[in-house]
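note to self — DONT lose this again. spent like an hour looking for the file last time. sequence + predicted structure for the chain T wanted, 110 res
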Amino acid sequence: MSRPRSDAKRRAILEAALRVFAERGITHAPTSAISKAAGVAEGSLFTYFESKDELMGELYRELRQEFSRHLEDFPHDGDAKTRLRFIWDKYLELGAKHPDRLKVLTQLRA
């Protein structure tokens, strides 16, 4: 019987992937480095994510959701200039607060 998955371990793997991707770039970030940074065995990483691509996809979704939460007060009734300025300001604000998150999000979108 397999052990139940731990949300804390899954979270640790995602946060470690974020750090390693920010430091090394996605193409130079082996799963062994991510596992080591998360403090888990490499096999454990594959218990939570079938592949590095799946890990990257989940990290991308989480970062996009995080960014979307910052747009909850989006001025839907504003003119185009107001709406674009709002998005631009939020993008810069998040980039200043969380440069690694923005760096990795940009890499994952490419």
